[in-house]
Write a structure and sequence with these properties.
Elements (H helix, E strand, L loop, with lengths): L1 H4 L16 E5 L3 H4 L5 H8 L3 E5 L5 H5 L2 E3 L6 H14 L5 H7 L23 E2 L4 E2 L10 E2 L2 H4 L29 E2 L14 H8 L5 H8 L3 H13 L7 E5 L1 H4 L4 H14 L10 E3 L6 H6 L6 E2 L3 E2 L9 H9 L8 H13 L23 H9 L5 E5 L3 H4 L3 H9 L3 E6 L4 H8 L1 H5 L10 E6 L8 E4 L4 E5 L12 H14 L6 H7 L7 E2 L4 E2 L1 H9 L56 E2 L27 E4 L4 E4 L78 E2 L21 E6 L15 H6 L4 E4 L1 H7 L6 E5 L4 E8 L6 E3 L2 E3 L1 E5 L20 E2 L11 E7 L6 H14 L19
Parallel strand pairs: 1-2, 1-8, 2-3, 8-9, 12-13, 13-14, 23-29, 24-26
Antiparallel strand pairs: 4-5, 6-7, 10-11, 15-16, 16-19, 17-18, 20-21, 22-30, 23-31, 25-26, 25-31, 27-28
Helix pairs in contact: 5-9, 5-10, 5-12, 16-18
Length: 896
């Protein structure tokens, strides 16, 4: 969504779903995984909205939807592409919205070639490096700049002669598309053969209902019904919403799943409008917050990219390209300087570049999956694990445990004695004999953590909403909050430094002066929030991010959170009851940015500033007062007139016209086409998962995403896919899912008696037909096998997982919940034992939602016999180090 609209957060808020005329839930079992927010779906249904659930499994969400549409796991782009084609071929798009608010009219350079021209890849693809040079993707008449100031790629691709080659840079992970300079050539009639609109029509022309049926297993009648519902409930007077979760993100084309939904919603005119938008459902209390103030290796707070070694030599080089572009990213210097002032205070000055050189520099991919390889190979010696349980909760858990076993030290902070803390004594490798406890040198420190009820702080949830939670009880014994741990760890490290080196001074001069309270010297969470909000030169709280300055007179720990303590009031702690305010409820908590609840809401009005319809009025231009007004904080310059046109060469926010709602994009428009910023294509294209028993029917010579991120290693071998020798060994599709009764990898739920009683054992969902085919008995045991491991589970024979007719054959799918491990009150094998590490190349997310496997009755073998079973399957499938590693399906390169 960052590449499509300008920000990676949900475009709308959960309560606004009640205003929808149609809600498509796909890639999510919202009723079970997000039950509190699902009340607004039920409210919409009560008011007459159509609710559609598209999912491989029939779930509690399906049970209350008007229609459940079963599809094959991993085929969503084909389905969404079919919907896009339906809209375009029937001219059902919202024309006035599309021509004015999207980049449909932009003309692409004549050297661009589509997947339809090059048999499954876009122009600029290097099959050896597995990456694209995006030079041919650019608009005619403008120059794109790699995301944020030309920062280097995380891994520099090389040519066959070993020279570094210029490549696309990854999406800024929620911070908008790349900037470009100048205005591209355009055709507002949308007739030019190389305008985005015509390229889009051509790209999806083959995504017809019969092709969708063949790829996804969705009948043409069901497809037509869904398409008709979305079209009938979109336009001037009606709006449709889409909600998704990790069922879309956990794929090797996960970013492109969301891009396809973004294209569909832009065509239908549903972005920025009440009852419309795309809701990215976050599964935990502050997942959104952990990307805003990031736990991601490549971002600084507020989605500012982490500087790269060699290219970002000083502050000037870091901000140069962005400052000369249109839109709000042109103010990046103010955002970054204010951040540096928040971190180094009086020590950050103009003379020392505001301590810019103290920021870490990226030298490559430092994501979790590269880190575990570094552990295995001896480059990473120590590890902090906080709020995660990689020994069972991460793809290819065996690889994770191998990394843990190679460490010198490991710190685990958790509520319970999770598997990551005990892998050295009861991990599966101890049983199989691959590891011996006596040989594992990792020194493990387990530190009890305080739960959220035992500490103050904020959650930032699904809809970008900050909500303060007050401590209910004091932590007991030696349990401590994460804030306490990091604050006191930092204090102790600083006490040991001499201050004689620049490295020491970088730590000693950090602003680390938070007040503490109580017997435990707990740091003040409100003081941290105030630092994040920011202050002016007089120490007064700032009210909004436009107040940030680049001269060092303001400080702000996260520019998008600026305003959360405006007027010295903790805005996130507001709890005005709903009946005392409007339906938008602006006085319940505080949403970034600037307490806007629907992003891009300028698009809820027509180019003249009038609501598209009275029924869907949200914000509008008030000529009498000379400002934008309405039910929400306008996501636009409040006094910018609809007829404002920037002069030639105007940059920054002033470079955005009064008719361009997407203010974080350098052209102010929603992007149907991404000229740079995504590493695997300007349009979403259907590719099969890394491991699939079905061939790519759209592009027979390009089975997988050619730019996916892969790393074949002895502990991470890939399986052959359809069309490759040995693929018949793994004939079934499996997908993982969540239960309401358990939480993530089970670290917070498997120790609770009532939840363990409600969901007492790992199970697999199979259809009656698959059960008959493989001799599986309801309630008995089954073993599921992939090329990496085998797990056992109880069998649940259910019609919730019916077979599909795909590519002329019957295809069976298996559902596996992923909450188990060997510790706790309810124990079982971990689903992540089955899954290999193959990643989306934009955001490094693993593919857990679509894989290929075999299943057979009975319990899995024990001890060394388990490894022999897996080895037998690998031998039968012919798996070696090259299997599944080709980027371009050239028979001379293919493994398998």
């Amino acid at each position: 969504m960052g590449a499509s609209f300008g920000r990676g957060g949900a475009t709308t808020f959960q309560q606004d779903l009640a205003e929808s005329d149609c809600i498509l839930i796909q890639g999510s079992n919202m009723a079970e995984a997000h039950p509190v927010g699902f009340q607004w779906v039920m409210e919409a249904k009560k008011r007459g909205a159509t609710v559609i659930h598209v999912d491989p499994r029939y779930t509690r969400t399906s049970a209350v939807a008007h229609k459940h549409v079963a599809l094959r796991a991993g085929s969503d782009i084909a389905f969404l592409g079919g919907l896009i084609n339906h809209v375009l071929t029937r001219e059902a798009h919202f024309h006035d919205y599309v021509v004015n608010y999207t980049n449909a009219a932009m003309i692409v350079g004549e050297d661009f070639r589509d997947t339809e021209d090059l048999d499954g890849v876009f122009s600029g693809f290097d099959p050896e490096a597995g990456s694209y040079d995006t030079a041919t993707w650019q608009y005619q008449g403008s120059h794109a700049v790699p995301p944020v100031g030309g920062h280097g790629p995380e891994q520099a691709p090389t040519t066959r002669h070993g020279r570094e080659r210029q490549s696309s840079r990854p999406e800024r992970t929620g911070s908008g598309g790349p900037v470009y300079h100048g205005r591209p050539d355009s055709d507002p009639t949308l007739q030019h053969p190389r305008c985005v609109f015509q390229l889009l029509k051509r790209h999806y022309a083959r995504y017809t209902p019969d092709v969708v049926e063949e790829i996804c297993g969705i009948s043409q009648d069901d497809f037509a019904w869904v398409a008709d519902q979305l079209v009938a409930n979109s336009g001037r007077d009606r709006t449709s919403a889409i909600a998704y979760a990790v069922g879309w993100t956990h794929h090797t084309v996960g970013a492109q799943y969301i891009r396809a939904a973004s294209i569909l919603q832009l065509l239908l005119g549903n972005i920025g409008r009440p009852g419309g938008g795309i809701l990215a459902l976050r599964g935990h209390a502050s997942i959104q917050g952990s990307t805003d103030i990031p736990t991601l290796f490549n971002l600084l707070p507020g989605y500012i990219p982490m500087p790269h070694a060699h290219t970002d030599t000083d502050l000037e080089s870091f901000v140069a390209d962005d400052e000369h572009a249109c839109g709000y990213w042109a103010n990046i210097r103010s955002y970054l300087v204010s951040l540096l002032k928040a971190w180094w205070g009086e020590h950050a000055t103009v003379d020392n570049d505001f301590c810019f050189d103290r920021l870490p520099r990226l030298t490559g991919d430092h994501g979790t999956f590269q880190t575990v390889i570094d552990q295995i190979e001896g480059r990473c010696k120590g590890y902090f694990v906080i709020g995660e349980n990689p020994a069972v909760g991460t793809a290819n858990s065996r690889q994770q445990r191998m990394g843990l076993a190679a460490l010198d030290w490991l710190v685990v902070r958790d509520l319970n004695m999770i598997e990551t803390a005990t892998f050295w004594k009861n991990g599966p490798e101890i049983e199989t004999g691959e590891m011996r406890t006596a040989d594992i040198g990792t020194e493990v420190f387990f530190l009890p953590a305080a739960s959220h009820t035992e500490k103050d702080g904020t959650f930032t949830n699904t809809q970008r909403l900050l909500q303060w939670h007050h401590k209910a009880v004091e932590p007991t014994d030696d349990q401590r909050s994460d804030l306490w741990f990091y604050y006191h760890l930092g204090r102790r490290i600083r006490d040991k430094l001499s201050g004689e080196t620049e490295r020491d001074r970088a730590l000693l001069e950090l602003t680390w002066d938070y007040p503490t309270h109580g017997d435990l010297d707990e740091p003040s969470a409100e003081a941290v929030l105030a630092e994040i909000n920011g202050h002016d030169g007089n120490g007064e709280p700032l009210s909004a991010y436009p107040q940030l300055r680049s001269d060092g007179s303001t400080s702000c720990g996260c520019w998008i959170y600026c305003g959360v303590t405006a007027d010295g009031v903790n805005q996130s702690a507001r709890r005005t009851p709903g009946h005392q305010q409007s339906r938008v409820a602006p006085e319940w908590g505080w949403a970034w940015p600037a307490n806007r609840r629907i992003l891009y809401n300028r698009a809820s009005a027509d180019p003249e500033g009038r609501p598209w319809s009275e029924r869907k009025a949200y914000v509008w231009w008030d000529e009498e007062s000379g400002e934008w007004t309405g039910h929400d904080v306008p996501d636009f310059d409040k006094t910018k007139r609809p007829d404002y046109r920037p002069g030639s060469g105007t940059v920054g926010p002033e470079g955005i016209a009064g008719t361009e709602p997407f203010i974080m994009q350098s052209d102010g428009r929603g992007w149907l086409y991404v000229p740079a910023g995504l590493v695997d294509g300007p349009f979403p294209a259907h590719y099969e998962p890394q491991e699939s028993p079905i061939a790519n029917l759209l592009h027979p010579h390009q089975q997988r995403n050619p730019a996916r991120q892969i790393n074949s290693r002895p502990e991470n071998r890939y399986q052959p896919s359809a069309g490759e020798p040995g693929s018949e060994v793994f004939p079934y599709v499996f997908t993982t899912f969540r239960l309401t009764e358990h939480h993530t990898a089970g670290g917070m739920s498997r120790w609770l008696r009532h939840l363990s009683e409600l969901a007492p054992a790992l199970f697999v969902e199979v259809s009656p037909q698959l059960a008959a085919e493989r001799g599986l008995e309801h309630g008995d045991w089954a073993t599921v096998i992939t090329g990496r491991s085998a797990i056992e589970a109880r069998v649940m024979v259910t019609e919730r997982m019916l077979p599909l007719r795909v590519a002329g054959r019957t295809l069976h799918q298996i559902g596996i919940p992923w909450h188990w491990g060997p510790n706790g009150l309810t124990t079982g094998d971990a689903a992540n034992e089955l899954i290999g590490v193959a990643l989306d190349p934009n955001v490094h997310i693993m593919e857990t939602k679509a894989g290929a496997c075999d299943i057979r009755p009975g319990r899995r073998p024990r001890a060394a016999a388990l490894n022999r079973l897996v080895a037998e399957y690998r031998d039968r499938a012919g798996i070696d180090e090259r299997t599944g590693t080709e980027h371009s399906d050239d028979p001379r390169q293919a493994g398998g």
